[in-house]
Amino acid sequence: MDRSAEGRILEHPILGIPDGEWIEFAFDGVPVRARAGEPVTSALMAAGMSVFGRHERGGAPQGIFCANGQCAKCLVLADGVPVKGCMTPAKPGMDVRSIDGSPPLPADDRRLPKSDIEVLRPEVLIIGGGPAGISAAVELGRAGVRTLLVDDKGRLGGKLVLQTHAFFGSISDCQAGTRGIDIAENLAGEISKLESVSVMLNTACVGVFCDGTLGLDSAGRYVLAKPEVLLNAAGAREKALAFPGCDLPGVYGAGAFQTLVNRDLVMASKRLFIIGGGNVGLIAAYHALQAGIKVVGLAEAMPRVGGYLVHRDKIARLGVPVHVSHSIIAAEGREKLESVVIAAIDKDWKPVRGTFRRFEVDTLLIAVGLNPVSEMAEKAREYGMKVLSAGDAEEIAEASAAMFSGKIRGLEAARILGRGGDIPKTWHALLAVLKQPGGRVHDAKITGGSGARYPVFRCFQEIPCNPCIDVCPKNSISIPSGLITGLPAFSGECTGCGKCASICPGLAITIVREDYDETRKLALVTVPFEMNRALVRTGDVVDAVDASGAPACKARISAVRDRKFQDRRLLVELEVPFEKRLDVAGFVLQEREEGTPCEYGADAGSAIVCKCERVTRAEIEAEIRAGATDMNELKARLRCLMGACGGKTCTDEIKRIFRSLGTANPAPNEPRPFYSEIPLGRLAGEEPDGSKG
After folding, report:
1. Per-residue pLDDT tens for 287-304?
2. Among 3.50.50.60, 1.10.3720.10, 1.10.390.10, 3.40.50.800, what is the CATH number of 119-236+372-435?
3. What is the average per-residue pLDDT within 48-75?
4. pLDDT score, position 550
5. Are domains 3-101+240-366 and 119-236+372-435 of this chain identical in fold?
6. pTM (2 decimals)?
7. Under a CB-based contact definition with an 8 Å cutoff, are residues 560 and 570 in contact?
8. Distance between CA atoms of 160 and 127, rounded to whole angstroms?
């Protein structure tokens, strides 16, 4: 194996490994192999390079954080031009250089002749080609509305293209039981059939102007769009968290990790820790396991994870420790992350003495929530434009809710223009259900069936999900409450086909076969499994566990079923003691780690709050204590909020600091007129090759 393959995922239980063209570019004079078109930083990470430059303030190493163009930690020079490496495709022969300090100013300061800028005039402009944006475009296209859909990535789908897991909801309304990667393909296929919908990829909306136009940077070419209706479906950006060492290379967002692993198939880590027990953090842990990465643990500050219980249970069953009422104390390392320290926290969110533990890891994922990307819509409304928002850009929820939200907003946009039919009365009610976080958790009562074969449900929490009902060939599964958030029940005949266990998004269904052994000393339990096939071999003895990951018994793998309807999900048949048949829900994949007890006196004031300008918590606190009550005042004094991200990653943390010091509502930061960087030459109509437009 050549060295370029060491940092690549070469086998995956869900994703195919591409045979695409390989190219070569140079990073600081060192040859780097890349898949044609993949981002520069993904290729560098695959080559084992996690430091892309050094900050002008103290020379601190800079690495990836968002992998989504929202921050600027991955800034590099590509053929002499400063660019975000996560958004810049690698090209053959490209000369990429790390930046030590501030990027150099270009030598070319010639006067640019102004050219005419093309103005596009769609009836509806949709910003964002994720689940909400595509779903809205489909409804508008069906109504015959001239629609322009723009997205800053090279393919449609948004975060769907990162999701290898099956979705919740209902089959008819939001393709429940289908994997996100496949939903992305399905929706993109629908778009391609609609004549009135145009799509511009690699296109970022960089500004909203008072005359009702929006600036679009389309693959290096600047155009304007003047729609009658703007539909913002730009999604969300990850929240940051400030703690000592939070700026080290190796500390980054869970969404960035999913981008590296599931989109670019980069083996981004060997040992991983996660902060945040919402669905994003829990799913990132699961995706890491699918890629063959050791998940050392997950810490959640609340007494219970905020994500779905089934997501927590499926990683706990595989051997991932979930530490509730715990928080990050510090990340440690010199040039990159080497270890993390966590501790239990009390009711006042203070670390509890004697509970500090250190874990050796190379990657720490921050999964502490999302913020809507809403600044474009807010400015457009200020200018009197007709604006709608859908998906996470309106309210943070699951992708199933985003799709349904997009459908409704698409029809609303059509109705504003005098097109489209009535919106079904049931849609708004269903959307409200799909937006709900995990609801009531019921007592974990496991009951068997009356026959020789029956399914066992471990759905203990009320969440919107019912695909198991639709796929049972005997119609033996129902939800007694009649609500999509109700818990399923079995009554009738079971053939043992496994279709319910194959489609369950939470991997919460097993099939018990009591007639496996006439002596009733053994039973057969079929469990779902979505890891690499090589990990399950007939005859192997495994450590079986219950729903929450507690030890149950030893079990022998009797068979591994892999049929087409299982959709890349294996059904592993386990031979277990008869009396344990209702207990077994899965088996351990990795050995649990407990960390090393330690003492730690971290200086919380050293935490970097503004990563762009490297402004610390202590500096911000000092200014507030000196009388600052205004975010813009802090900007003027400290340069926080002034970096390349435009305050996207530090605003929330600065507000928290204000609140902690007694100022609940500081005067807000005034955002810059452009939402992302754009060369001035493009505003004058210069083409990407430098020619006049």
Report:
1. 999 999 999 999 999 999
2. 3.50.50.60
3. 90
4. 95
5. yes
6. 0.94
7. yes
8. 16
